[in-house]
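ingest -> validate -> predict -> emit
validate: passed (alphabet ok, no gaps, 103 aa)
predict: started
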Amino acid sequence: MIIGENTKEKEFIENELKTLVEKFPEIRARYLYEPYCDTHFVEITPKNFYYNEEYISWEITIHSKFTSNYRHENLCFITDDSVFRMKNCECDIKGGNYHEIAI
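emit:
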């Protein structure tokens, strides 16, 4: 469980990411809240999964739920080649079939 600022928002995101990774065990989902830009970042890897139609549908649904419930918060989905880099994520969930690729 995530403790601190924006606890309800963070718990919502963490729970949704757990559900996503259970459904798609070949992915990794990481989460970070950046207070300087008041944005919740979610990173989905591997990059090719980011374009999966089921994932896209999930993302649209979650974004809609999030913005309906937390109107003054921002939610941004990225992948591992994004300009923004997560250094110290607050939540890191790896599916059982996820394999990191060394670069």
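Strands lie at 28-34, 39-45, 74-78, 91-94.
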